[in-house]
Please model this.
Amino acid sequence: MPHAVLRFLPAVALAAVALAGCSDEAPQSQTAPPGSSPVAQQAAVPFNDADVTFARQALAHHQQGVDLASLAETRAANDQLKALAKRIIDTHEPEIARLSGLIEAWAQPAPDDPNLEHVQRDGYVSPGDMAELAALSGKDFDRQFVARLLRQREAGVRIADAETQHGRNPDARDLAATTSRSQQQEIGDLRGFQQG
Model:
């Protein structure tokens, strides 16, 4: 009888391993040794495909937000709009670092060109639109900037909300929630500029 039990145990162990790999969430993780770096420790936290999609899309979105806001710093006529642009840059730069850290920790490829993550996505500001904005100044710039940034912010909220609904990684979900809140505030500010 003990021999029968011993023969049965490897089959049970194999079945348990196989079942552990089955999941709709497609969780992925690695084990970090004690005392390892924060990046390695982050890699040990489970993540799924939604987390990776969020990190890549949000990285592209944030970088484009910084590029747009940088134009406003020198071309906008409205001082409040310039202040909003500075706030976007100050908020996005550390978040870009966090997103890059997540992508690296998960051993996922970073986008070669962050703009490629936005191709044919709702809210994407095309290179042609960016060039058009760069050629404007004063009130003409303000009007076009607000319209384009508003659509870009709305797309950012959708990217973040998809992560909070489907993501698994706590750090990515926390960043998504923060992003959604801040961009909703910016949307309110931009609508105020349109009405004013």
In short: The helical segments are 2-20, 38-43, 49-75, 79-105, 127-134, 138-166, 170-195. The longest helix spans residues 138-166.
